[in-house]
């Protein structure tokens, strides 16, 4: 069942840089999809187009058969969780408040003025905290947490939105390999147990092979591969196309990662 | 637990607002409440006077008195000249004072303490108070204004200089000191060049401040546009008043933008 | 140098007269050496009023800038046109000197501290609004994006991302503005807007330099004490 339909979507920035060439893709519900490519390939742009953090230069995006417009932008965003490479927690607020931020769409302006949340939001937040295994850190300041813990809080913030899909923009790029694997496992678990579609961008081939149901390879703004991890494993030349630079050489993140994967 | 019986509560461990926040809020409210009568806060009065204010604003919409422009021009020039002169004068005065008042360049700890305290005394009073003092000493005109402004800005500038000199990389100072140079050489070759960008941005900040101050010292008869402003307000000469306020607004805004630009370029 | 000389000539300043009149100046300053504290209680009350004006002015400007600054921060402002309008409004408030504003309010509201605190509050909200907006623009853009991505509104982004991130700067700037307002409140009386300034200009009018000296001393001591207090507080905050 298709959840997100992207048809002929492209993005050209004001400075003339073409981040994404016209692309048509369908993301299936319940799948763990990885967008793989070297840095600067346009993975981030593709994800940010989906919840309107970027506006497409052309083409159409449908999320659960609804088009993203200025009017329904906030409602659709509330249904889409997003986690970032830099976690992006509000460092002065405690973990609980950071998670409750995921409920803001459902709160009236006067509730936000006084920082008030109803009990059902707390119940959700406690459930999400338990889900990411951070119950004992609920009242700590976000800045006091380690990188991996901060990313868990960010995942919990996305979870309380009760999203149908979570967009993960390089979720493990600023974490050490062991923590990175833990975070990826957590995302996979959320995808498989809670039925949340996960769309993650990565630049490490190893993690993609390990976790992805489906891999979309992007290079210089164009989709160059779309298939399962097994298919990519067999078609090694396709793997090289993903990481091929303009001058024909391979991106440095590639060689290292393949070595790790084998 | 009481908070939990309510539908909403706050995202803190006990569900209520943090104690420090409550104390801060209560203190401020208490202070405001206890001083309300002292400052004669009266919402009814404010509300009633909105009509008056609007009437005032309406009167400002008149045909400006164009023949007044040349006088306005000379007065505005005088204001700018006062500001400029005071800035350069206090720049000259504050360099040696700043060096004496910085911990790492002062020749002696006692000199440091004396000059620090002298500077804070100079800064303590607003320039208009000094202008009052100097006006009654040397009479009306720009001279008392220049004296008052120079006095206060020297205090300001020397303090900022001293602070920026203190944060100058002490390694640079050590390396020059290691060559066996004396205090004056140390200052000219190690401390001043390092502190230069700070000094420039200070200079712009001060010129900005001085133009603002120069527009108002005329209120006590110490030269500049302020005197004209008070007179035209007292005489209900709104066609002049509007021109004066407009010119003050323009000058200050232009200066604000210019110093913003310069600071961006330097830093 | 040349410019300095030209301006000196143009302003018809004669620093010679300052130097020649040095003896007179010493004579003149001698009059300040015996401050007359016979009306000390009245002065203290006036100083209290001055401090109250500064406090109310600061709180007023804090409230105004709390509302305006998120609108004037480029990266969260709901619309570029709103951003431009609010920025211009803040510039305008900063450009009109508070004494001039006080003059206008005095002619509309009558004499007293109320026009003074309104003038202080409006003028300094131009400063605080600009400072806060610039602090908000320095917050990591990702934090705003994270809130936007949850479907939060502009107001919620201001409440949950902008303000908590710049809390420390808010406290520092507000203290700085209070410090400044105390200074300005001492002179508001010159235009009839309350505080100790009216008394000060009256003593000069009657050539009562002994009383002027006492007033100046009280003002000086208060300002220095407030200065040290706010430095101490700012250090504690950071």
Under CATH, the topology of chain C is which?
MetI-like fold
Low-confidence stretches of chain C: none
Poorly predicted residue ranges of chain B: none
Number of structural units classed as domains of chain B: 1
What's the total helix number of chain B?
11
CATH architecture of chain C: Orthogonal Bundle
Query: Major β-sheet of chain B, in short?
Result: none
The top level CATH class name of chain B = Mainly Alpha
The appropriate CATH architecture of chain B is: Orthogonal Bundle
Estimate percent helicity of chain B: over 70%
Task: Spell out the blueprint of helices and strands.
The complex is a heterotrimer of chains A (about 260), B (about 270) and C (about 240).
Chain A: E1 2-12, E2 18-28, E3 32-36, H1 43-50, E4 58-63, E5 66-67, H2 73-79, E6 80-83, H3 95-100, H4 109-113, E7 117-118, H5 119-131, H6 147-159, E8 165-169, H7 177-194, E9 197-202, H8 205-211, E10 214-219, E11 222-227, H9 229-234, H10 236-243, H11 252-261
Parallel strand pairs in A: 3-9, 3-10, 6-8, 8-9
Antiparallel strand pairs in A: 1-2, 1-4, 4-5, 10-11
Chain B: H1 2-5, E1 8-9, H2 19-35, H3 43-60, H4 69-100, H5 109-124, H6 127-138, H7 142-167, H8 170-177, H9 183-217, H10 225-234, H11 238-266
Chain C: H1 2-10, H2 15-20, H3 22-30, H4 40-72, H5 80-95, H6 98-109, H7 113-138, H8 141-149, H9 154-165, H10 167-188, H11 197-205, H12 209-237
How would you describe the overall organization of this protein?
The complex is a heterotrimer of chains A (262), B (267) and C (238). Helices cover 39% and strands 24% of the residues of chain A. Chain A is α/β, with parallel strands linked by helices and 262 residues long. In chain A, the strands form 2 sheets. In chain A, strands 6-8-9-3-10-11 form a 6-stranded mixed β-sheet, with helices on both faces. A 4-stranded antiparallel β-sheet of chain A has the order 2-1-4-5, covered by helices on one side. In chain A, 46% of the residues are buried. By secondary structure, chain B is mainly α. In chain B, helix 4 packs parallel to helix 7 (142-167) and helix 8 crosses helix 9. The longest helix of chain B is centred in the last third of the chain and has 35 residues, at 183-217. Chain B is extended. Chain B starts with a helix and ends with a helix. Chain C is an all-alpha fold. Chain C has one domain: MetI-like (MetI-like fold, Orthogonal Bundle). The mean pLDDT of chain C is 88. The A-B interface holds A 93-94, 96-97, 100, 111, 115-119, 122, 139 and B 4, 7-13. Strand 7 of chain A pairs antiparallel with strand 1 (8-9) of chain B.
């Amino acid at each position: 069942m298709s959840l997100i339909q992207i048809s002929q979507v492209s993005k050209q920035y004001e400075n003339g840089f073409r981040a994404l060439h016209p692309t048509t893709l369908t993301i299936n519900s319940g799948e763990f999809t990885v967008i793989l490519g070297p840095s600067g390939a346009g993975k981030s742009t593709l994800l940010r187009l989906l919840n309107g953090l970027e506006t497409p230069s052309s083409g159409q995006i449908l999320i659960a058969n609804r088009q993203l417009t200025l009017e329904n932008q906030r409602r659709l965003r509330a249904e889409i969780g997003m986690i970032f490479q830099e976690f992006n927690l509000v460092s002065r607020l405690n973990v609980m408040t950071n998670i409750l931020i995921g409920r803001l769409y459902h709160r009236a302006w006067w509730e936000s003025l006084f920082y008030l949340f109803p009990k059902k939001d707390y119940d959700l937040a406690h459930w999400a905290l338990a889900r990411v295994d951070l119950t004992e850190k609920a009242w700590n300041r976000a800045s006091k947490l380690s990188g991996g813990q901060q990313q868990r809080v960010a995942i919990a913030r996305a979870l309380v939105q009760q999203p149908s899909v979570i967009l993960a923009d390089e979720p493990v790029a600023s974490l050490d390999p062991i923590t990175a694997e833990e975070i990826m496992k957590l995302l996979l678990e959320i995808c498989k147990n809670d039925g949340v579609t996960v769309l993650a961008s990565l630049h490490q081939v190893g993690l993609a092979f390990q976790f992805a149901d489906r891999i979309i390879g992007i290079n210089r703004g164009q989709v160059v591969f779309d298939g399962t991890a097994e298919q990519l494993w067999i078609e090694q030349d396709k793997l090289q196309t993903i990481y091929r630079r303009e001058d024909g050489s391979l991106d440095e993140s590639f060689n290292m990662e393949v070595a790790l994967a084998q | 637990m009481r908070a939990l019986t309510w539908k909403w509560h706050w995202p803190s461990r006990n569900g209520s607002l943090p104690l420090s926040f409550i104390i801060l809020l209560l203190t401020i409210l208490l202070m405001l409440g206890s001083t309300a009568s002292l400052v004669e806060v009266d919402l009814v009065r404010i509300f009633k006077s909105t009509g008056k204010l609007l009437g005032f604003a309406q009167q400002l919409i008149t045909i400006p008195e164009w023949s007044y422009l040349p006088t306005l021009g000379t007065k505005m020039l005088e204001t700018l000249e006062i500001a400029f002169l005071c800035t350069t004068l206090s720049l000259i005065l504050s360099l040696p004072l700043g060096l004496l008042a910085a911990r790492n360049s002062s020749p002696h700890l006692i000199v440091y303490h004396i000059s620090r305290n002298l500077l804070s005394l100079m800064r303590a009073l607003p320039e208009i108070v000094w202008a009052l003092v100097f006006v009654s000493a040397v009479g009306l005109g720009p001279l008392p204004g220049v004296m008052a402004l120079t006095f206060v800005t020297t205090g300001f500038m020397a303090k900022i200089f001293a602070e920026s000199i203190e944060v100058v990389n002490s390694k640079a100072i050590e390396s020059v000191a290691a060559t066996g140079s004396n205090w004056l050489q140390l200052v000219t070759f190690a401390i001043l060049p390092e502190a230069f960008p700070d000094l420039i941005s200070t200079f712009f900040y001060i010129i900005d401040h001085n133009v603002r101050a120069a527009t108002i010292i005329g209120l006590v008869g110490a030269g500049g546009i302020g005197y004209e402003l008070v007179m035209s307000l007292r005489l209900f000469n709104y066609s002049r008043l509007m021109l004066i306020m407009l010119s003050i607004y323009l000058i200050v805004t232009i200066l604000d933008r210019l110093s913003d630009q310069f600071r961006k370029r330097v830093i | 140098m040349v410019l300095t000389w030209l301006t000196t000539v143009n302003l018809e300043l004669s620093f010679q007269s300052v130097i020649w009149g040095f003896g007179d100046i010493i004579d003149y300053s001698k009059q300040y050496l015996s401050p007359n504290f016979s009306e000390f209680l009245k002065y203290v009350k006036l100083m209290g009023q001055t401090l109250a004006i500064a406090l109310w002015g600061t709180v007023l400007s804090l409230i105004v800038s709390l509302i305006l600054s998120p609108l004037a921060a480029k990266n969260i402002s709901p619309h570029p046109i709103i951003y431009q309008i609010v920025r211009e409004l803040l510039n305008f408030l900063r450009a009109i000197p508070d004494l001039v504003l006080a003059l206008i309010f005095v002619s509309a509201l009558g004499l007293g501290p109320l026009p003074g605190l309104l003038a202080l509050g409006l003028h300094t909200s131009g400063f605080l609004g600009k400072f806060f907006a610039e602090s908000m623009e320095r917050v990591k853009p990702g934090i705003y994006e994270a809130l936007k991505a949850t479907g939060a509104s502009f107001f919620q982004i201001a409440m949950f991302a902008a303000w908590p991130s710049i809390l420390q700067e808010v406290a520092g700037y507000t203290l700085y503005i209070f410090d400044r307002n105390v200074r300005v409140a001492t002179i508001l009386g010159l235009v009839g807007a309350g505080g100790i300034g009216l008394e000060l200009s009256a003593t000069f009018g009657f050539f009562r330099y002994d009383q002027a000296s006492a007033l100046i001393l009280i003002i000086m001591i208060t300002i220095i004490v407030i200065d040290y207090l706010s430095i101490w507080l700012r250090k504690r905050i950071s």
